[in-house]
Amino acid sequence: MDDPRANMQDNRLVALGAPHADWTKTPGRTLGFWLTLAGFALAIVLPFWGVIAVLVGLAFSMRAIRVMPAGVPGRGLVLASLGIAAATLLLSVARGILGV
Known about the structure:
- It comes from Cryobacterium algoricola.
- The chain is mainly α.
- It has helices spanning 13-16, 29-45, 47-67, 75-98.
C-alpha cells in the first residue's frame, strides 16, 4: 500500500488520543444537588415535604451517577448529594420517632 495517509509513524492524530468527555455537564448533576440541599433545609422545618424534595433530588442524582464512570471530575457533587439525602432521611426518621 502506497497511500501516505496509512503511514502511522508520521501520523500526528494517533498522539492526540481520544477526546475527553466533559462530565461536569451531566444532566441532573447540579439540579439534583440543589434540590437535595433545599430538601435538607426544608426537612428541618417540615419533614414530610423535605423528604419529598430530597427524593426528587435523589432521582436526578441517581440518573447522573448511572451515566458517570468512577473517578471522573464532577462525581463528588453527586456523591455529596447522596450523602445529604441519607442525612435528611435519618433526620426525618429521628424526628418522627422522637416526636420533636
